[in-house]
Write a structure and sequence with these properties.
Elements (H helix, E strand, L loop, with lengths): L5 H13 L2 E2 H7 L7 H13 L3 E6 L2 E6 L3 H16 L4 H10 L5 H14 L1
Antiparallel strand pairs: 1-3, 2-3
Length: 119
């Protein structure tokens, strides 16, 4: 599974949300600067070439849908990020968020409870 560009991830988020969509429907979901229709269409076809998306043909138009689930993508690339940026240590990951004040003591306690329940 190839890593996606930021724009490709943005497109996939729309497809995961809509579950299936025509290019014009994907385009309508973009906030702010919208890509040109033809550019978006090309990017979606590239996602198809990478194995992330497939389509159903309706005459000359295509309705696209994701082949890779959001959960499968998240799992693959979170594991990769933890390996690359946190020395494959979940402790380092949690410490990073604690130091950045992105996680509260209450949230950490909830995480501990989850871990203890799994034992």
């Amino acid at each position: 599974m190839q890593k996606l560009t930021n724009k490709e991830e943005e497109i996939m988020k729309v497809l995961w949300k809509l579950e299936k969509a025509f290019v014009k429907e994907v385009l309508a979901e973009f906030k702010g600067d919208k890509p040109h229709y033809n550019t978006l269409s090309t990017m979606i076809r590239n996602l198809e070439d990478k194995g992330y998306v497939a389509h159903n043909a309706f005459g000359n138009t295509h309705q696209y849908y994701p082949l890779v689930s959001k959960e499968a993508y998240r799992k693959k690339f979170m594991n990769s990020a933890i390996e690359d940026y946190f020395n494959n240590s979940y402790k380092n990951l949690v410490s990073f968020f604690a130091n950045e004040k992105k996680i509260s003591v209450e949230e950490l306690k909830e995480i501990i409870e989850l871990i203890e329940k799994k034992k």
